[in-house]
């Protein structure tokens, strides 16, 4: 499948039942809402997807069920986050086998690779597949920054096509554009910087709160691209308290609680995660309740 790295691409949550098995029915209900809202792709197996807790058979079920359900309407992107190069190459092989259309690739997990090791890691992955690749650049959470000079080496691989920009430095979008022009598509990876990133020239938004609020997320992207900045800004200001739930260690629990409020998910998480409790639960629920009470009607 040929596709462009642009638009809103949800990093979807994985749905579980009360007895800790996959809830594919509820999962696909959410995927359906994303497609109807106009997203440009579905990303599986990220942090929000609790991928580190999933067994291989469960990953296969999620990818194959999603590929079958979307039926070519949008690409299905699989996250690759492994500790070794060998593990990453195996994960890529399986993603291809299950029918993935593209890959979002993180640097090596746990080990803080140096620049040469990181470039070599990404290069080995790119050489092993024809699937298009988006490199996830998130030094804040993962301790490794993919610098401009490193991208200079990586763009020799034609299937390295995009970057999920999560450095938290908006000016890095301009640096990437100045250095590489349109060679790399740029997608914002931080919910609370999405509007600013899009105005700075980002092509898209890898979103989190979209899992609960797909229409609102797509509307912000669409209106910015159409030049309706006032409308986008008003909606973004309403959205911000919710978006801030994504930049939190309990982002999975936060977003799943928001999904409950909009009827697009359940609160079940996989241990060691637990549902929110006590004062933190009250705080997050209060934010969600306030947003729902003032939720605007969005017409796309």
Automatic annotation (TrEMBL):
<keyword id="KW-0456">Lyase</keyword>
<protein>
    <submittedName>
        <fullName>Dihydrodipicolinate synthase family protein</fullName>
    </submittedName>
</protein>
<dbReference type="Pfam" id="PF00701">
    <property type="entry name" value="DHDPS"/>
</dbReference>
<feature type="active site" description="Schiff-base intermediate with substrate">
    <location>
        <position position="164"/>
    </location>
</feature>
<dbReference type="InterPro" id="IPR002220">
    <property type="entry name" value="DapA-like"/>
</dbReference>
<feature type="binding site">
    <location>
        <position position="206"/>
    </location>
    <ligand>
        <name>pyruvate</name>
    </ligand>
</feature>
<comment type="similarity">
    <text>Belongs to the DapA family.</text>
</comment>
<dbReference type="InterPro" id="IPR013785">
    <property type="entry name" value="Aldolase_TIM"/>
</dbReference>
<dbReference type="GO" id="GO:0008840">
    <property type="term" value="F:4-hydroxy-tetrahydrodipicolinate synthase activity"/>
</dbReference>
<feature type="active site" description="Proton donor/acceptor">
    <location>
        <position position="136"/>
    </location>
</feature>
């Amino acid at each position: 499948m040929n596709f462009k790295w642009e638009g809103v691409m949800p990093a979807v949550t994985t749905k579980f039942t009360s007895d800790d098995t996959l809830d594919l029915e509820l999962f696909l209900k959410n995927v359906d809402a994303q497609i109807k809202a106009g997203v440009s792709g579905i990303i599986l197996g990220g942090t929000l997807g609790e991928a580190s807790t999933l067994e291989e058979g469960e990953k296969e079920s999620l990818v194959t069920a999603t590929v079958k359900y979307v039926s070519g309407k949008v690409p299905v992107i699989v996250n690759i986050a492994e500790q070794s190069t060998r593990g990453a190459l195996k994960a890529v092989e399986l993603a291809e086998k299950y029918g993935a259309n593209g890959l979002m690739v993180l640097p090596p997990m746990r080990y803080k690779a140096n620049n040469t090791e990181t470039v070599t890691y990404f290069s080995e992955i790119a050489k092993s597949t024809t699937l298009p690749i988006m490199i996830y650049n998130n030094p804040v959470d993962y301790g490794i920054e993919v610098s401009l000079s490193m991208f200079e080496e990586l763009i020799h691989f034609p299937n390295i096509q995009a970057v999920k920009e999560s450095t938290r430095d908006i000016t890095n979008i301009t640096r990437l554009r100045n250095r590489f022009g349109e060679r790399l598509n740029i997608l914002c990876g931080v919910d609370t910087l999405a509007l600013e990133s899009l105005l700075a020239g980002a092509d898209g938004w890898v979103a989190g709160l979209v899992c609960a609020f797909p229409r609102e997320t797509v509307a912000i992207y669409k209106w910015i691209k159409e030049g309706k900045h006032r409308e986008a800004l008003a909606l973004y200001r309403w959205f911000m308290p919710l978006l801030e739930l994504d930049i939190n260690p309990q982002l999975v629990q936060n977003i799943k609680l928001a999904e409950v409020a909009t009827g697009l998910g359940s609160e079940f998480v996989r241990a060691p995660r637990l549902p929110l409790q006590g004062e933190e639960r009250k705080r997050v629920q209060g934010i969600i309740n306030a947003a729902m009470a003032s939720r605007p009607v969005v017409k796309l």
